[in-house]
């Protein structure tokens, strides 16, 4: 979807149309969740601190997010997807992979399917969508951003390898800023440079990701569209209006985060063995601390106990804490659920 959250807000409020809009908090600790294309012209981007966004675009209009509305619109969009294929892999509320090799409409040309889906989305929701069409997930993802907004782009099998060779390494999906910097230090600036590196070299430098990089440099990606993606973690975090300096206050601030994470985990019967604490300081430095227990964390009390065990050694602090986060991972198989509560045993 094109600037999904912001586009929904502009659709529902005519006064916002044609204006720079940011969905998110306008306070000094706010973060932009989505920016309209009018705001993007000023350099406003998602995940940008609100104060930075406001500085870049003085006329920026901040709108509080309405996630329940976004979820309803997302459900409408996925219903449309389901009219064409049942091989749908959601990535987020506004993005998904579709395998249309075989489709319910019997259509032979993927680009025509994309056009039909985009037209139907606009008819039902009043919102525009863009599409990337290719023979694998990596190239489809890369293609999806080429003709935004309200467009589509095709990368055929004949053009795939050459397309990848000319791509700047920082544009590769799955290669973030830190990895791109490491690659550039190794002389890897483009897809052609990446392709020139042998597999053992990439495995040595990038471990398990080395094989993935080796193959995508050749336009090869054998990953299937997964209709049931396995959740690997459940987490939540809060940015505070004022920095936290005291342990008791930090525990107080951590409580609603734990509540949120536990509600989601319990609703999905996701009992993790590993808890990770995230701490972001006032200077934006980030540390994480993890603990893996011998048994799944099956109660909120267990989760809080481990979280406090990780939080306490962080204090006393020399600089204030602006954000705390908690995530659960290492989930037990659902068939491994115990009817009776197990005693918590920490692997210290």
UniProtKB/TrEMBL annotation:
Mg(2+) binds at residue 94. Its EC number is 2.7.7.7. It is an enzyme of class 2 (transferase). Pfam families: IMS, IMS_C, IMS_HHH. InterPro entries: DNA/RNA_pol_sf, DNA_pol_Y-fam_lit_finger_sf, DNA_pol_Y-fam_little_finger, DNA_polymerase-Y, DNApol_IV, PolY_HhH_motif, Rev_trsase/Diguanyl_cyclase, UmuC. The keyword Metal-binding applies. This is DNA polymerase IV. The gene is dinB.
